Amino acid sequence: MDSGQFIFILSRLVLGTAASFLAIMLWSRTRDAAWILVIIGTIIAYVETVYSILNLIGIGGGNILPEAFVFLVSITLNSLHMAFYVAAFAVMVVRKYRRR
User: How many CB atoms lie within 10 A of CB 64?
Assistant: First the structure.
């Protein structure tokens, strides 16, 4: 692992940790459906970051778990946080157009 890759991994972990911490802090203060979906998407994005870094290092479970399961988890984590963001934005769009 070269220094550029280390800095990339470290920056993703630090920024993801900060975003997830603040999202969890916000979760206890809000009851808005759109914000809850954004918060869940942010937490899942951080889980995906940690999972991809573990796979990059070699601790991801490719030797222990079947390859199909590891592939399914990777695909799910890559797309699930975007699905929550899409749902949050859809809630906001429906809310804005319903008022008119």
Answer: 9
